[in-house]
Write a structure and sequence with these properties.
about 30% helix; six-stranded antiparallel beta sheet; about 30% strand
C-alpha cells in the first residue's frame, strides 16, 4: 500500500514538474516574440543571451542596439522581468483565455516619472489590446471628493501617470498612480484626497474589468 502511495506521489510530482517546465518554455517563447513596437532596442540574439545568462546564474549584461545594458531579473513559469537599460523595464505575463493563451507585455519607463504601457497579443502575435484592456479615463482616478472638484484637479493635472503591477495568482492588475515631478509637494498634498492612489482590474479570461 505504501509502495502504491509513494508511486502515486512521484507520478503527481512528475506531472507537476513537467507542467511547470512546459509553462516556463511558453513564457520564454513569449519573451522571444516581443513585438518590435514594445521593445525596439532589443534584438533576437540579445533575447537569447539574456535568457542564457540568467539560467546560467550569470549577471553578465547584454547590450541593446544603443549600447545600453539589459538583463533578466526574474524568470518563472508565468512571468519574465527584464531591465532594458537604465530607464526602462519590461514584464511579460501569460494570460489564459479559453483555448488560447495571450501574452501581456508591461513596458515601464522609469524617468522622469515612472509610467507603464500595456500591450496584449494572441498566440498569432495579433495585437488584441483594444478588446482586452481599456485604459482608465481621467474620471476613473477621481475620488468621490475629487469628482466634486474636478475642475481644480484638471487645472493642476492633465494626465495621470501610473505603474502597472500584475499578480498571476489572483489575476489582478494594479495601476499605482505617480505624480509628475513638476508638481510641488504643496499641490500634491491638495490633490491626494481628490485622487485614488490605485486602480485594480480583474482578468476574466477574456478581458480586464475595472473593479469598482
Amino acid at each position: 500500500m505504501k509502495g502504491i502511495l509513494r508511486a502515486a506521489l512521484w507520478a503527481m510530482l512528475s506531472i507537476t514538474t513537467f507542467a511547470s517546465q512546459a509553462q516556463t518554455e511558453s513564457v520564454k517563447a513569449t519573451f522571444m516574440a516581443i513585438p518590435s513596437e514594445v521593445a525596439p532596442l532589443i534584438s533576437e540574439y540579445a533575447k537569447l543571451d539574456m535568457i542564457d545568462y540568467f539560467e546560467s546564474g550569470m549577471e553578465t549584461p547584454t547590450a541593446n542596439v544603443l549600447g545600453g545594458k539589459m538583463r533578466l531579473t526574474e524568470l518563472t513559469p508565468d512571468h519574465i522581468a527584464a531591465e532594458l537599460g537604465t530607464a526602462q523595464t519590461l514584464d511579460v505575463y501569460l494570460l489564459p483565455s479559453g483555448a488560447d493563451t495571450l501574452a501581456m507585455y508591461i513596458s515601464t519607463l522609469t524617468v522622469p516619472v515612472a509610467d507603464s504601457y500595456i500591450n496584449i497579443v494572441n498566440s498569432d502575435t495579433v495585437d488584441v489590446t483594444a478588446r482586452t484592456f481599456k485604459a482608465p479615463e481621467f474620471r476613473d482616478w477621481l475620488s468621490s471628493q475629487g469628482k466634486k472638484q474636478r475642475k481644480y484637479v484638471e487645472s493642476e493635472l492633465t494626465y495621470v501617470n501610473s505603474v502597472c503591477l500584475y499578480s498571476p495568482d489572483s489575476g489582478v492588475l494594479t495601476l499605482k498612480m505617480r505624480y509628475p515631478a513638476t508638481l510641488s509637494q504643496e499641490v500634491i498634498s491638495k490633490l491626494e484626497p481628490l485622487l485614488l492612489p490605485e486602480l485594480q482590474y480583474k482578468w476574466t479570461g477574456k478581458k480586464f474589468t475595472l473593479l469598482k
